[in-house]
Amino acid sequence: MTALVGDSITLRALEPNDIAWLHPLENDESLWEVSHTITPFSKHILTEYINNAHRDIYEVKQLRLVITLTEDMRPIGCIDLFDFDPKHRRAGVGIVIFDKETRGKGYAKQALQQLCRYAFKTLDLHQVYAHITLDNTKSKQLFTACGFSQTSIRKDWVKTENGFKDEAIYQCFQSPT
Hints:
Blueprint: E1 9-12, H1 19-26, H2 32-35, H3 43-51, H4 57-60, E2 63-69, E3 75-85, E4 90-97, H5 107-122, E5 127-133, H6 137-145, E6 149-160, E7 163-173
Parallel strand pairs: 4-5
Antiparallel strand pairs: 1-2, 2-3, 3-4, 5-7, 6-7
């Protein structure tokens, strides 16, 4: 089994027809707080993004993979590596399951485990990390279940409509071999 193909889910590159679900996802204001987005994206901009998604992670410092169900390759979410830093061998990770019917079935955990295997074995990263607001219980549970540990808290880090939220940093380190 490769790092990107699992029993239940497969991580794959973006395809041109992904614009149909990517546009509503990127413009879902309920997700903007966790993605630190403040403006909507046009279909044109997202099409350009997809057209350039083939560029090397060493060049663009990020990678977005689509989480699909292996049985029918239906997209259910996406997972990203961002702020890729090859010198310090680290990258941030973000994940969203946009298909509400598939939430809570363990697919996010499988995707995160697969991405971490890829990051550690293929990209030879030393660590991956995530920024999670303290009130995001599900994300904290997910990342903890995948071997991440909370290492610090940034006070009043994320501005919301209701004030500021603290944000925790969760890190996962490659096991020494």
